[in-house]
UniProtKB/TrEMBL annotation:
Key word Hydrolase present: no
Record-given protein name: TRAP transporter small permease protein
Domain Tripartite ATP-independent periplasmic transporters DctQ component: 39-164
UniProt subunit comment: The complex comprises the extracytoplasmic solute receptor protein and the two transmembrane proteins.
Record-linked Pfam families: DctQ
UniProt cross-references to PANTHER family, sorted A to Z: 2,3-DIKETO-L-GULONATE TRAP TRANSPORTER SMALL PERMEASE PROTEIN YIAM
InterPro entries (UniProt xref): DctQ, TRAP_DctQ
Subcellular location(s) of the protein: Cell inner membrane
Amino acid sequence: MDNKPPASVQADENTPRNPLDRAIVRIGDLLSLLFIVTALISFYEVVMRYAFNAPTTWVHETASFIGGALFIFGGIYAFATNKHVRVVLIYDAVSAKKRRYLNIFHHIVGLVFAGMLAYSAYFTAEESWFAPWGDLRLETSGSVLNAPYPALLKGLLFAVLCVLVIQFTLHLLQEISSIRKSKDV
């Protein structure tokens, strides 16, 4: 017997569950345009390097920064759209009721893990943004460009992990609420 929900229910499972998820999806859809920017500036680098023998000093680092930032944001986007990694071997083999309990377990473990990562990321970001004596001093790449990309990525990672903690909390509360509602019926 197939325990998978119908396609219409699966589609609903992939829609954002709350206003935060909807905002993340809207922002993510806009940010995805940066992949085009990355491709364009990479193309520009190839043309400049091989057609004009005038390589750039900024394209590689900038493209890596954009890609890294989008990768970091992609985690909360995947969670907002319910497309994150899941052990489907177990998840798809159980009833809808048991899935709710698996979701609660997942959200609790994820909340603890995201909280620990955010805690650690705070110290990493703080160290990359401030000198030991407290002055604002963004860590730079140390290259010819010497852009503050490392500090910006570490700050973004901390911010995104804080959002992930909020997401896990909201999803956990929604799962608990749905179990309570199903018991009331």
